[in-house]
Amino acid sequence: MSQVSTSPALGIATKPERRDIGLRRRYAAERRFRLYGMAAIAFGLLFLFLLLFSVVSKGYTAFQQTMITIPIEFSEQIIDKNNERATNPQKLVTANYPVVARNALAKVLGVSEDDRAGLKAVNGMISDSVRVQLRNLVTADPSIIGTTQTVTVLAHGDLDSAFKGQIDLTVPETNRKVSDKQVGWMNQLAESGALSKHFNTGLFTNGASSRPEAAGVGVALIGSLYMMLIVLVLSLPIGVAASIYLEEFAPKNRFTDLIEVNINNLAAVPSIVYGLLGLAVFINFAGFPRSAALVGGLVLTLMTLPTIIIATRAALKAVPPSIRAAALGLGASRMQTVFHHVLPLAMPGILTGTIIGLAHALGETAPLLLIGMVAFVADVPATPMDPATALPVQIYMWANEAERAFVERTSGAIIVLLIFLILMNVGAILLRRRFERRW
Amino acid sequence: MNMMSEAAVEKALDRQMNDISYKMIGKDVSVYYGEKRALYDVNLNVRENTVTALIGPSGCGKSTFLRTLNRMNDTIDGCRVTGRITLDSDDIYDPNIDVVELRARVGMVFQKPNPFPKSIYENVAYGPRIHGLAKAKADMDAIVEQSLQKAGLWNEVKDRLHEGGTGLSGGQQQRLCIARAVAVSPEVILMDEPCSALDPIATAKVEELIHELRANFTIVIVTHSMQQAARVSQRTAMFHLGNLVEENDTDKMFTNPDDQRTQDYIMGRFG
Ligand SMILES: Nc1ncnc2c1ncn2[C@@H]1O[C@H](COP(=O)(O)OP(=O)(O)OP(=O)(O)O)[C@@H](O)[C@H]1O
Ligand SMILES: [Mg+2]
Hints:
heterodimer, A: about 450 residues, mainly alpha, MetI-like fold, 2 domains, 3-stranded antiparallel sheet, 3 strands, about 65% helix, B: about 270 residues, alpha/beta, Rossmann fold, 6-stranded mixed sheet, 4-stranded antiparallel sheet, 10 strands, globular, binds adenosine-5'-triphosphate, binds magnesium ion, transport (chain B), ATP hydrolysis activity (chain B)
């Protein structure tokens, strides 16, 4: 009892001296680290912005093309003077269609048939591709010969550049590709509505052409599409099967270690080496055609496989062992364990890895140069065995051209490539979400 | 009346224990992990329709021994088992024995609840499905319901059978894993510290469940809780440093063990 009364009065415990545990230093370090991080990200964003800005500002005009809509008289006099077309079908193919178009435009502009210099200038305003365009019209329907049809033809690349304001008109006339007279006509036609900019569908459907206004990424798109399909169809099953075997079934010994090291090394081999390999194996040894999307696809498959295998193995490794134990403990075979439980859980990782590999392959140029895909291909390839190019190769080829119209097309093709890459990455994210939602 | 009959069942089970029948017999079982030896010539028999508890300090080889009984050690790289283990007189390490069939007869519940990331229904139905135990959907529904009933989980989940099994609480997950093991109708169920992640209430439920399962299954359970061993088991085996120290009736083990080390361990003097 007395002990209780002598105990000290209740109160707040005296606060011990505060220890210096370096809080200020630690927080300062953290702040510094965050600053570095933000600076790094800002730096990255700046360059991304610069890249996108330079590409888009140079390339957006490529999606529009200047065209001239004029009534064209399919004069029998020029096309088939002696009326031989019934006996000689070649006549309609070899007829002088550019003159037909030139005369039509000259008529609109009021240039006399005798003014040779004037006619030459008029001719310089129309793309040479008009020959093919009119020939196709006539061979499809020979009855239009002798009639007048309203046709929309491509303007010449230089006129297109001038109309887009890309040619400096203050430069002396002799130093530029469009004359003052042509500029005058251009403005006259634009005012009357005959000359205007249209959406450039040709950019997506045409193949290679030495005339920039008629050149497009059509062949390259198809070629890239074939190659992506080949890469997907080959590398996904092979890569996933190899990874599953290595990760879930193969014994862990020297030999499998060696394989693992080799796969990691292969992922780091410069892509041009794969091009050399493809040249030696697929073209020289197996005898596949040069410049074909098939060979390109096979080479890119070889290049993509290590990436997919590494991503798949990482995804398989990340599946908790307890899931395997649960399935095995119930009497599932190893194969059932893998296919019923492990693989579905690893799927998001596998798909992400695959799409990253595909995106990588889509942008690959160097190995394709070696197997001859850097070629002038004007016709859309019907099968993967036909000559084709690829988007990045097309960009590379156009980047070597000097004309202003090719410069904008180079950037335009880059924009197309970037859009495909973005779509693929969005696809990867969506697939990931979809598969992850199941657990 | 009910109490009486339960006591009668208890008596009957005890009587059955007197004319002993061994479900699994382990003879000179040694296990090596690479060069390291984890078990030294263990001779331990598991009686039918009995709960056998394995106790002993951490790292003494309880889980290792448990895993030899359904060959889960096969999945560990570098693990080697010598000696002889039989299930109803079949040598389970015989090359002619199919490990998949063995595991369908000797099921396992793990220390950490590990439901598949699928629905509750799918978790329970998976085993019967791969072994072809249900012909029609109705059969499967019946198996799922019975298994969940046996695991004491039915009432809690019957309205959400098609929701994810991983969304259950830890204790419910563990009972789901037990239901999953029961669904295959194994003869033996191995449990490796099934309650170590559970609260006292969930633990009590699992223990009650073990008690009921004993009528139909032979159970081997690893536990760190002496009270649990005393509550649920009829036989107890004590391991120490890879050796089987003593195996005895649980009552005797906890009152008057033969071995000094058992005495010390139970009294909490080491371990
Ligand atoms: N996969 C493994 N690889 C190598 N050694 C292992 C492995 N598993 C267990 N061991 C070793 O075998 C011995 C017995 O381990 P085991 O897991 O059987 O112990 P335990 O009695 O279950 O312990 P706990 O009560 O802590 O679970 C330990 O020394 C352990 O280090
Ligand atoms: Mg253990």
